[in-house]
Target: Transcriptional regulator
Amino acid sequence: MDKSAAQFFELIDRLGNLVRVNLRGAGSQHSLQPVHLQALIYLSIANRYSNTPQALTEYLGLTKGTVSQSLMLLHRRGLIERQGDASDKRLVRLALTESGAQLLKAIQLLPEWTQAVTCIAPQRSKIALAVLKELLLALQLGAGNRSFGVCNTCQLNLHEGPRSYRCGLTGEKLSLPDTRMICREHQPRQKPRR
Model:
């Protein structure tokens, strides 16, 4: 294995372990597993094209059964709601309830991360974020997975004027908050060739 690739793998594996420990600790206070918190976090950032059980399954990279069981538990606890899609009766849409949103606010997932990031110079932090985003995208696309990127970074996001956006895939108008959410249909913008 390439030394640089091995170092990235080791560091990200260790960071991933810390994330899971953080999720386990935060969830245990509410009798929730990390997958339950990951589902709630996803639904808090997913747009209206991405709030389905299938999209959540793809995003988490888990089995349909695991996601289905997790969603049933979250629904029974009143943390999410399930609604039929108005235009396609086969689809189920998921959304956080007020209780689900309050739980996410209450569990404070990021204090240690916030503290750690403040120890890094802002410019170095920007560079690190850019490198990690580039690595994530390369791994996703290399494996044939969807990128689930933020709408305003998608080549299908059409900026029509001041604060006016439209989805080039669906033709639907997008609000400014819509453009800040992640989307299952995200298509990364092509980088200009150097």
About this structure: The first helix runs from residue 3 to 28. The two ends are 28 Å apart (CA to CA).
